[in-house]
Amino acid sequence: MLWARLPLCSHSRPSTGGWQPLRFDGGAFHLKGTAKLARALLVLRLCAWPPLVTHGLAFQAWSQRLLGSRLSRALLRASIYGQFVAGETAGEVTDCVQQLQVLGLLPLLAVPTEEEPDSTAKTSEAWYEGNLRTMLHCVDLSRALVDTRGPARNSLMQLKVTALTSARLCKELSARIQRPAGSSELNPERLAEAMDSGQNLQLSCLSTDQNQHLQASLSRLHRVAQHARAQHVRLLVDAEYTFINPALSLLVDALALRWNRPEEGGPWVWNTYQAYLKETQKRLERDAEAAHKAGLAFGVKLVRGAYLDKERAMTQLQGKEDCTQPDYEATSRSYSRCLELMLRRVSLHGPLCHLMVASHNEDSVHQATKRMWELGIPPDGPVCFGQLLGMCDHVSLALGQAGYLVYKSIPYGCLEEVIPYLIRRAQENRSVLQGARREQALLSQELWRRLLGRKV
Fold first, then answer.
1. Better pLDDT: 357 or 205
2. Degrees (nearest 5) of the Cα angle 238, 244, 250?
3. Facing residues of 383 across strands?
4. Which pairing describes strands 383-388 and 353-358: parallel, antiparallel, or unpaired?
5. Within 10 A of 90 (CB to CB), how many other CB atoms are there?
6. Domain residues of the chain, as ranges?
7. Which residues contact 409 (CB under 8 A, 6 or more apart)?
8. φ/ψ (deg, to 5) at 381
9. What is the pLDDT of residues 368-402, one digit of tens each?
C-alpha cells in the first residue's frame, strides 16, 4: 500500500497516524520481465553459496580452461556480469540506464578500478593518469544519462580516491594524522590552496617522491571535481579500509572547502560514513557541525559498511583495539542513530544538507521514509536512496514507484576487469549476499505465480 503523495510536500509536522509504510513484498516485480527475474534468482542463489564467493577467481580460471574463453565469457555475460554490470560500451550502459529509468530508478555510475600494490603497472603515475581520463569520461556519461531538468536536477557518480592516488601514500598520511601530535601541515586548508593554485606542495613530513605524487594526486582530484561541477554531477566518494580513511577524509575535506560552498550550489563532493565503525556517529556529528560553522554544504552517503571481516583480521594482526561494532544488531542501531541525525539536519538546513540512504535493509528504509514524512522532507528532495544494481529490487522498485529518488550503483567496463572487481565486492559483502534470502523467496514466488498463470 503506497501512502498519499500530497502530505510529503508539506513542511509542517503531520500526524504520524496518517503515515502508511511501503510494502516490500515483491508486488513491484510485475514491472520486470520473466527472463530477468529468473536470472536474478539464479545469480543471487549462486552468490549466496560461500565456496563460489571465496574461490571466485579460481572458479573463473577453471571455467576458462574447461570451457574455453569464448563459452566462459558468454556464460558470465549471461549470468553474473549481466546481473550486476551495465555493460562495456556507452551504448550498453545507456540501454541499461534507460530500462532503469522506465522503472523509476536512476543511475549511480561506478568505475571498477582496483589498485594492486605489487603491480608496477597499476601503481605508476601513468596508471593514475589513465584512471583520471576514465573518471572524466564517467562524469560526461553520468551527465548524459540523466535529464537534469527533472526533479533530480543533478546526476551522481561514485569516486574512488585510490584510483587517483596511491593507497601507500594514503596509509602514510593516515598514520601521521593519527599520531598524538599529528602534523600541522596536514590540514584541508593547505591542500585546498594547493589544489586551487597548482603551486608545488612541499610537506616536510613526506619525501620528495611522496610530495610529487601528492601534488599530482591533488591535481587529479581537483580536475575531476571541477569537471563534475561544470557538468552538474555530484561526486560520492567511496569509503575504503579504516587504515587509510583518515587520509581520504583529509582529501575530501580539501575538496569540500573548494566545491561545497553555497555559492557553488553544493554539495558537489560527498563523503561516505560506515555505521559498522564505533566512531562513526561522533565523527558524523563533528563533521556536520564543522561544515555548518564553515558555511559549507554537506553531503553524506550512509552505509553499514563492507569491510568488517578484513578490518577485524587487520586489527587482531596489529594488536589494536577493535574499531568495529560487535555484531549486526549493534551496527543497525548505529545506522539508525546516524540516519536520525542526518534527517534532522536535512529538515533544518534544507538544500545545504544532502543524504543518500544507501541500504538494503528494509527496516532502515522504513525508518527513513517514515521520518521524512514526519519531518516534512519531500520524496524528491535532498534525501535519496541507494542500492546495488541487480540486488534489492523489491525495495528499489517500491521506492521508485512511490516517487522517491532511488539510485542503483552501476559498475561498467570490460568483462576481464569487472569480474575480478565483482568477486572482491562479493567477498566484502558476504552478509548482504547471504542475507538476500527474502529477495530470493519473493523472486521465486513471483516466478511460480507467472508459471501457474495466477493473477496478482
1. 357
2. 75
3. 355
4. parallel
5. 14
6. 103-418
7. 108, 110, 158, 358, 386, 387, 388, 389
8. -95, -145
9. 999 999 999 999 889 999 999 999 999 999 999 99
Rounded average pLDDT over 234-246? 90
DSSP for 203-220, please give it.
Answer: -TTS-HHHHHHHHHHHHH
Helix (H, G, I), strand (E, B) or coil at 10: coil
State how far the Cα of 32 lies from the Cα of 99, in Å rounded to an integer: 10
Q: Identify the DSSP state of 186.
A: -
Identify the bridge partners of residue 270 per DSSP, sorted by sequence position: 236
CB 255 within 8 A of CB 225: yes
One DSSP character per residue, 93-149 reads HHHHHHHHHHTT-EEEEE------TT-STTSSHHHHHHHHHHHHHHHHHHHHHS-TT
Give CA–CA dist 50/53, Å, rounded: 5
Average pLDDT over residues 139-158: 78
**Hey, which residues does 385 pair with through a beta bridge?**
357, 406
**Cell, residue 395:** 525495495
**Cross-strand bridge partners of residue 356:** 301, 384
Please choose, from the candidates 383, 398, 410, the residue with its C-alpha nearest in 3D space to the C-alpha of residue 442: 398
Residue 168: C-alpha distances to residues 35, 165, 172 (Å): 45, 9, 6
Could you tell me if 7 and 373 are in contact, meaning their C-beta atoms sit under 8 angstroms apart? yes
Closest-CA residue to 296 (of 256, 268, 269):
256
Contacts of 120 (CB under 8 A, 6+ apart): none
∠ CA(53), CA(59), CA(65), 5° rounding? Answer: 170
> What is the CB-side half-sphere exposure of residue 119 using CA atoms within 13 A?
11
pLDDT at 263: 87
Level-2 CATH architecture, domain 103-418: Alpha-Beta Barrel (3.20)
Give the rounded distance of the alpha carbon of 241 from its chain centre.
Answer: 14
Cell of 128: 593514475
- All three cell numbers of 358, joined, read 544507501
Distance CA 345, CA 2 (A): 26
As a residue count, the chain comes to: 456
DSSP 271-339: EEEETTBTTHHHHHHHHHHHHHHTT--EEEEEE--S-HHHHHHHHHHHTPPP-B-SSHHHHHHHHHHHH
Count other C-beta atoms under 10 Å from residue 159's C-beta: 25
Q: What pLDDT score was predicted for residue 8? A: 31
Structural Rg of the chain based on CA atoms: 22
